[in-house]
Design brief:
mainly alpha, globular
């Protein structure tokens, strides 16, 4: 199994996680699409989410030229939508990528989506295969590699959900006044 196959699998986990979240909580995705003046309904978002989750799972398990190409097209669309949402600014309060867990649209989203597009397009060209093809030749009969792919995918999800909110919190901190950072753990103390 190659590094590219592992990366394709991680992007598959990202896509499956987003699809699963949107299927359960489609409202923020509907709002994001409407902010872009695109037609959107709960039924349409859920249908799209089921396709995303299915393609994501296939990317992890089997991959291949055509599944990677479909995934690349999905992420190319995400890149365009994310960039348009970033340009909307305050009108778009959520990217809608992960249901209620979605962060505000950011250039991080655009970068991750664009990187996923490139990885999947490269996987399509190379006809990268998924975990199933290499299962018995991998450490721990594939469980170790599958766990690492899952962890990498989870980190990509965190990059799109936690990082934008963390950066917003950091930019809101008033450091020049000499106060302690407030992250819910350390309270700033008034000057005496």
């Amino acid at each position: 199994m190659t590094v590219l196959a592992g990366l394709v699998g991680m992007v598959g986990v990202l896509l499956a996680a987003g699809g699963t979240s949107k299927a359960r909580q489609p409202a923020s995705t509907v709002r994001s699409l409407r902010a872009l003046r695109l037609p959107a309904s709960v039924v349409a978002v859920r249908a799209m989410a089921v396709v995303e989750a299915g393609v994501g799972a296939l990317l992890v398990v089997v991959a291949g030229r055509w599944i990677c190409a479909v995934g690349a097209l999905i992420f190319a669309a995400f890149t365009i939508v994310s960039a348009r949402l970033v340009r909307l600014g305050g009108d778009a309060t959520s990217c809608g990528c992960f249901g209620d867990r979605s962060a505000r649209p950011s250039w991080w989203h655009v970068g991750v989506d664009a990187g996923a597009t490139v990885a999947l397009a490269t996987g399509a060209i190379a006809s990268t295969t998924g975990v199933a093809r290499h299962w018995h030749s991998l450490p721990g009969q594939g469980w170790v590699v599958l766990g690492l792919i899952g962890l990498g995918g989870y980190l990509l999800v965190a990059l799109m959900t936690v990082l934008p909110d963390t950066l917003d919190a950091l930019s809101a901190v008033d450091e020049p006044a000499g106060r302690n950072l407030e992250f819910g753990l350390v309270r700033s103390r008034p000057a005496r």
